[in-house]
Amino acid sequence: MLFLAFPVNTARKGAIFALLWFGGMFAEWIGIHYGILFGTYSYGANLGVKIDGVPVLIGINWALLTFITARIAQYVSKNNILQILLGATLMLILDYFMEQSAPRFDFWEFKDGVAPLKNYITWFLVAVLFHILVKWMKITGDLRFSIHLYAAQLLFFVYFFSWF
């Protein structure tokens, strides 16, 4: 579905998707092996195949979230800086709610069961870097798909945050 809404039909688009995937995977690899970016955490079994402890799906999620939040931000504002900050903020909001439910789904879990403040700070900073890259490369996609996918994920995690 992502590739229908954001066709990776040029070398440039393929390169940006690969770079976002790799960047997300690398940030998470540093995170789980050294605990310096997001805090001390580890991945569970429910996100599938892993490369050195990091689920492949996590890199895809970083790319996907960057694409869809960038598109939403492009719609909301024409100002480049606001687009970058809004896109990163949308990613951070979703991350906040994901963090609360991740352990019950065996996605990941932080030491002591709570994501530290540095997790959110780092998430925002990495998201800003990714949004700068997407803006610079002029990547855009389907607005309706982006809003629906973001809303579906947010509502899913908010539901589990609020009820359990």
Architecture blueprint of SSEs:
Elements (H helix, E strand, L loop, with lengths): L1 H4 L5 H24 L6 E3 L6 E2 L2 E2 H21 L3 H22 L6 E3 L6 H20 L6 H21 L1
Antiparallel strand pairs: 1-4, 2-3
Helix pairs in contact: 2-3, 2-5, 3-4, 3-5, 3-6, 4-5, 4-6
Commentary on this structure:
- With 164 residues, the chain is mainly alpha-helical.
- It has one domain.
- Helix content is 68%, strand content 6%.
- The chain contains 6 helices and 4 strands.
- It has helices at residues 2-5, 11-34, 56-76, 80-101, 117-136, 143-163; strands at 41-43, 50-51, 54-55, 108-110.
- The strands form 2 sheets. It has a two-stranded antiparallel ribbon with strand order 1-4. It has a two-stranded antiparallel ribbon with strand order 2-3.
- Helix 3 (56-76) crosses helix 5.
- The longest helix has 24 residues, at 11-34.
- The protein is globular and about 40 Å long.
- The two termini are 30 Å apart.
State the end-to-end distance: 30 Å
Strand content: 5-15%
Rg computed from alpha carbons, rounded to a whole number of angstroms: 15 Å
Strand count, sense and barrel status of the largest sheet are:
2 strands, antiparallel
Mean pLDDT: 91
Shape by Cα distribution = globular
Q: How many structural domains are formed by the residues?
A: 1
Strand order of the largest sheet: 1-4
What's the SSE pattern? HHEEEHHEHH
- By secondary-structure content and strand pairing, the structural class works out as mainly alpha
Number of helices: 6
Number of strands: 4
Low-confidence stretches: none
Helix fraction, binned, reads 55-70%
